[in-house]
Amino acid sequence: MAISSLTNTLISASLIPSPIIPANFTPSYTLNISFPSKSPSNGSLVRVSDVKEKPNVTFSATSDSASAQSFTFFLIDPDAPTPDDPKFAYWRHWVVTNIPSTAKEISEGKTLTQYLAPGPKDESGPHRYLFLLFKEPEGFSIEKSDVGGEEFVDRRSFEARKFAERYGLELVGVQWMRGVGDGWNGGKDEL
Fold this sequence. Notes:
Layout: H1 2-12, E1 29-34, E2 44-47, E3 56-61, E4 70-77, E5 91-100, E6 110-113, E7 127-135, H2 144-147, H3 160-166, E8 170-180
Parallel strand pairs: 2-8
Antiparallel strand pairs: 1-3, 4-5, 4-7, 5-6, 7-8
């Protein structure tokens, strides 16, 4: 089953448990990520040039019992600036809120942080990138200023877990990929 393989890859990448994904997490929504040349999933490896354009992100409930009024979406990097020294985790690459439950794509929501393509350096090694879907509580409303600025340095050290807790967001869907620079040629991780 797709959910168990996703969960297994998250566990093997030390993403379950993590500050943003609890040990008992079971997704109730699936996320599909499509860049023009790649559709990464379950930790597949992409290069910077594969992800320079904003992806199409779709979602669907894993069962008829899953329900929500609206959703918030994050794309964050727990490995910034490098996996060995993640002092700027979580890097905030993209935030969309107020995605209607009737939507099929996150682009139907309100963008609070514009998409900033992942850009790990060639010498950094693979970064893990998390695509996260949260169920919003009833009456949820935030503005750009609640998330943070768009400038490059404003995006670092985003306290994703505290943000989710503060606004009552419930994690319901996860997908992830690993990203490397175009010139990266290291190790056992093949493209």
